[in-house]
Amino acid sequence: MHPGQTRWRSLPGPGADRVCAVFHDPALAGARAAASRRGGEKTRPAVLAASTPDAPLTTPTELTALLGRTINQVLRGEIDPKVATTVAYLLTVMMKAADRGRLEQRLAELEQALKEKHAEPSLFDPDEFGGA
After folding, report:
1. Residues contacting residue 32 through CB under 8 Å, at least 6 positions apart
2. Per-residue b/e over 47-81, b at no fewer than 16 CB within 10 Å?
3. How would DSSP label each residue in 59-123?
């Protein structure tokens, strides 16, 4: 050891009879565990209670309403911004999937209408003029 340097990098706890630093003292194991839990609680993201009812997610209006509520909960500090980012991402995925479903439905309807239109007899018969 260098002159003026103490043996422990952390100071021993109160009492002259301590043999080891506070972080290694077996007599303080319970206090260390409690402090660790309190520290872990501070780093946990804030989420809604498990008893919170599910939000309706059927229509674009309901999805927009959930996004608005989530924004307000972040502003009030009720949920962690990381949780809100996840909610916003999932809402975006849901909206894109709904848009794709609507487009597929419209395409199927147009294809059906086109088939029905070509099923009707035409005034022009390509076979009369040596066509296909």
Report:
1. 22, 23
2. eeeeeeeeeeeeeeeebeebbeebeebbeeeebee
3. SHHHHHHHHHHHHHHHHTTSS-HHHHHHHHHHHHHHHHHHHHHHHHHHHHHHHHHHHHHHHSPPS
**pLDDT score of 12:** 54
Tell me the per-residue pLDDT of 47-80, one tens digit each, with 9 for 90 and over: 778 898 899 999 989 999 999 999 999 999 988 9
Q: Which residue, among 47, 23, 21, has the nearest Cα to 36 in the 3D structure?
A: 23
pLDDT average per 10 residues of sequence, the chain (132 residues) = 60 56 72 74 73 90 94 92 94 93 93 82 68 55
For residue 24, the SS3 value is helix
- Taken as a whole, the chain contains a residue count of 132
Distances (CA, A) of 26 to 7, 10, 31, 42: 19, 16, 10, 25
